[in-house]
Amino acid sequence: MSSNHFDIIILGAGALGVSCAYELSKSGQKIALIDQFTPPHSKGSSFGETRLFRQAYFEDERYIPFLKSAYQHWRSWEDELKSSFLYDNGYLTLFNSSSDIAQKMHKNAKKWNISGFNLDAKQVQESFPQFQNDNNFSGYLEKNAGMLDVEIIFEKCLQGFSKAGGVCCFNETVMDWKEDSENFIVQTQKEKYHCGKIIFTPGAWLREMPLLTEMKLTVKRGVQFWFPPPPVPFPKEMPCFAFALDKNYVFGFPPLRSGIKIANYHPSDTIEDLSLNRETYTSEEFNSVHNIAHQFFPWLPSKPSSFHVCMYTLTQDEDFILDYLPNNRNILILGGASGHAFKFIPFLAKQVSVFFPSGNDIPQELRFFSLR
Q1: What CATH class has 61-148+217-314?
Q2: pTM above 0.70, yes or no
């Protein structure tokens, strides 16, 4: 096989692309990973230091078995890559009685035997003095939850991929791709590549694929804000946290490298032009976070120390896309992460590594991710 001929080419090196590249490379196949930027970069959705891992999933209980499996896969990756990047610091949700999110979370945690416990307002204050709980909100602490270190995950997965013989083709924009009688040809501005199979994981650029226009994918802004730690150091280890008040849901992370990170669960405005500058935030975006978080962190300054705008690619039902292109089992589409896929990536990558190389059927339990 010549240097530019591969078994599989993966187009897009965000979290989904990098994780699939790492898992597929273990099989000894020749894999190329192509991206127009160098990951991890600030142009997509897999940037911003940390991501949450939680299992008491209020969005849709069909995801919970995948999360239980993903937890084990994260631990396996840590062993394989000789690194630590899933911190079991817990996930504390403070909520009021009218939060339907908290009600769904409780229901699913009980049904699926997810480790955690309820706290009344006094217990919240005693156990977690980092949070000022003047309104006496109740809490729920999920134990096998915490934060994922995004930068370390990218670094170690790419190292593992390269060590297994994978080829990184970064800062290369795909100009065209086509299928001939024997294989696929992928043309970038630098090189021409050949392969037997293609996985499309281009993140927000999935919306630009003519073959997927009927899915009506939407790309929205997800703004993350960082604030300096309080003037007096926290007295105890701090969990990841969320404030579920009425219809509002704001979540955050303890300091890792850049201070406390806080964001709104609900993305804001639609991004029409993916090339536009995203180096500003609106007052509405900031206030939707600050007005909630300030109730619990009264020391929070009126301006963030930094921020980042992610691009979240949403399907209409906010389920992922994981499917073959119609009538072609040599092309896999993986995307539409809808702002909540990062915690699943080792599970999804493992599934892809099992069925895709041989063109086997997608497992039944994953078929609600089909093109629709």
Answers
A1: alpha beta
A2: yes
